[in-house]
Amino acid sequence: MRHHSIQPQRGFFPQPVYLIGTYKDNGEPNFALITWVTFCSVEPPMLMFASRGKKLTRELVEKHKMFSANLVTSDMMPVADYFGTQSGYHQNKCEAIHVDTFQGSSLAVPILKDSPWVYECALVDVIEKENSSIYIGEVKNILVDETIEDVGYGKIDMYDLDPLIYAPGKYYNISESIGNVGFSKK
């Protein structure tokens, strides 16, 4: 394989899709499609997401100091795409497309009923980087679909969860498992 250099950019980085949830001041739930989401601490468990540009979700996370991170499944792709392409400043996006939500168990954050795995997070830090911000939240609770029984490390079946994967400009799903961690040691 031969390689060549390209300019630094954010053009290719496959990742799971999340809908970050907050409440508006009038109590309406608001969600934004965010794909730059990952863990950044083990103890206590913390995750971070990055967002750029003017977004209602950014303003609300900073104001209320909490958010939900709702994993998006392949079946939820139309909802995620709508939330990712429409502004919440002048409309109730959930009402517009008839999405069911409820309030989190530990924090006052909106939860998408159809999401099988949801993190309830308290904001602990915001790191500003030019036109982007990194939001770090401590995981206070995880809501998991009751059909997912074994949540131990390496036990969750990705086919059952069916996470939507984003690679700039396109959505994908997981098609097959090709090995377990540590297989090369055998």
From TrEMBL:
Q: Which Gene3D superfamilies match?
A: Electron Transport, Fmn-binding Protein, Chain A
Q: Does the keyword Oxidoreductase apply?
A: no
Alphabetical keyword list: Flavoprotein
Name the domain of life. Bacteria
Give every Flavin reductase like domain span. Answer: 10-155
Its required cofactor(s), as named, are:
FMN
Matching entries from InterPro entries are given as: Flavin_Rdtase-like_dom, Flavoredoxin, Split_barrel_FMN-bd
Entry's family note: Belongs to the flavoredoxin family.
Indicate what this protein is called per its UniProt record: Flavin reductase family protein
Question: Native species of this protein?
Answer: Fusibacter paucivorans
